[in-house]
Amino acid sequence: MAKSTKITNDIRRLRFEASEMTQAELARRIGVTRQTVIAIEQGRYSPSLEVAFKIAIAFRVSLETVFQYPDVEAN
Amino acid sequence: MTYMEKLNIAGMAVGAVLYGWYLSVIAGRLGSVPIEQLGYKTELAFTLLGFVVLITVAAIVIAIFDHKELKDNADGEDERDKKIYRNGDLISGNVLGGFVTLLLIVVCFVDLHTFWVANALMASIVLSGIIGQLVKMLDYRLG
Question: Least CA distance to B75: which residue of chain A?
Answer without folding.
Answer: A31
